[in-house]
Design a protein that fits this description.
By secondary structure, the protein is α+β, with helices and mostly antiparallel strands. The chain is built from six helices and 13 strands. Strands 1-2-3-5-6-8-7 form a seven-stranded mixed sheet. Strands 11-10-12-13 form a four-stranded mixed sheet, covered by helices on one side. Strands 4-9 form a two-stranded antiparallel sheet. α4 links the parallel β10 and β11. The radius of gyration is 19 Å and the shape is globular. The protein starts with a strand and ends in an 8-residue tail after the last helix.
Length: about 280
């Protein structure tokens, strides 16, 4: 059994030991810890916009998982909506993945939204989930099937990205911003341009960036890091995390450096015509 403890965004310390766990490999800890500090600053900044975190705590006091919620208007994902509560992230430590932690967190959020929805402007709950996809090649993150068990219905889709919504009455039907080709990205460059999109919301973005730098270094490309904390960037790219090549979307989620390098090589098999 777990108990659920809610914290406001200005008290982000409860996320400690969850997003980045002390038992993670030393290399991962070294890379991701600075990004965790960035995440905590981001959480404090988002608190004034209504962000809050619920943490599942075991009988031994260990934090086992967390769910991060915010009004959909401030979602850390490419979503257009109004009047919903948005789930930025639901994360359970792998060792507790089959222990009912995720279910306890979801039941807490749904009960909270039903009972206190009007007070927080929640006429529904929205989440961007993923279907038949493996983040970093080995784990399923925010799987659509899990949320469907709680009555969420699909309202939009872009490949493996599935926008799900639980209607509690009064929210505008949300929609997904879709990535599109952007012209004039290469400009005067004589090389292909690989844009790596990342958000301060998730420290795993740091792990993606580090891996891409390692695996793409031998390719004759220009790598540009694009921070998507600004809503204008999300609307321009139609995604929060991922990779674009020469203005064309390639991967619309976090991915390993090996996966990105392989996908970039495949994309660059076509002749390069600089703009």
């Amino acid at each position: 059994m777990v108990r659920i403890v809610e914290f406001p965004g200005e008290a982000p310390e409860p996320a400690e030991g969850l997003c980045v766990h002390p038992d993670d490999p030393p290399r991962m800890l070294a890379v991701m810890t600075p990004y965790m500090d960035i995440r905590k600053r981001w959480l404090r900044g988002m608190a004034e916009k209504g962000l809050w975190i619920a943490v599942a705590v075991g009988a031994d006091g260990e934090r086992r998982g967390m769910i991060e919620c915010v009004p959909v208007e401030w979602a850390a994902e490419p979503v257009d909506g109004e009047g919903s509560l948005f789930i930025n992230c639901l994360w359970v430590l792998p060792r507790y993945s089959k222990a009912g932690v995720g279910t306890a967190l979801m039941e807490y959020v749904i009960t909270h939204a039903r009972n206190d929805g009007k007070a927080r402007g929640a006429g529904g709950i929205t989440v961007l989930a993923h279907e038949k996809d493996r983040w970093f090649g080995y784990f399923s993150y925010m799987p659509a099937g899990f949320f469907r068990r709680f009555g969420f219905s699909e309202v939009d889709r872009d490949g493996s990205r599935v926008l799900l919504h639980l209607d509690l009455g009064g929210a505008r039907r949300p929609s997904l911003l879709h990535p599109g080709t952007r012209a004039d990205v290469v400009g005067a460059s004589t090389r292909h341009v690989v844009e790596v999109l990342y958000s301060s919301q998730c420290p795993w973005s740091g792990w993606m960036i580090d891996g891409i730098r390692d695996h793409i270094a031998k390719l004759d490309v220009e790598v540009r890091l694009v921070n998507t904390d600004d809503r204008a960037a999300v609307e321009e790219y139609g995604m929060t995390r991922g990779v674009c090549v020469d203005g064309q979307p390639l991967i619309a989620r976090l991915a390993s450096g090996r996966e990105v390098a392989r996908a970039v090589k495949q994309r660059l098999s076509v002749p390069f015509e600089p703009g």
